[in-house]
């Protein structure tokens, strides 16, 4: 099992107040956050790729490839 060390008193207090000893909810919310960040990152990459395509600097990836990358976040 992995652990994360938090060296921020304000964040530690927030986590204690919101989750107490409920580590399952904390883990669920953390995983939801990580997945959301991944999808956001993939979307930004897609928009950046479109900009490069419009400038004539890159060919676009296939839609299927992008959907596979997004689905892999599940």
Give a description of the structure.
There is one protein chain. The protein has 74 residues and is mainly alpha-helical. The chain has a domain at 22-71. It has three helices and no strands. The model has no long low-confidence stretch (mean pLDDT 87).
Number of helices: 3
Sequence stretches where pLDDT stays below 50 over 5 or more residues: none
Order of helices and strands: HHH
Total number of β-strand segments?
0
User: What Rg is obtained from the alpha carbons, in whole angstroms?
Assistant: 18 Å
Binned strand content: under 5%
Largest sheet: none
- What's the overall geometry? elongated
Distance between the termini: 20 Å
Mean pLDDT: 87
Helix content: over 70%
Structural class: mainly alpha
Secondary structure: elements and pairs:
Layout: H1 9-19, H2 23-54, H3 63-71
What labels would you give this structure?
single chain, 74 residues, elongated, mainly alpha
Task: Give a short overview.
The protein is mainly α and 74 residues long.
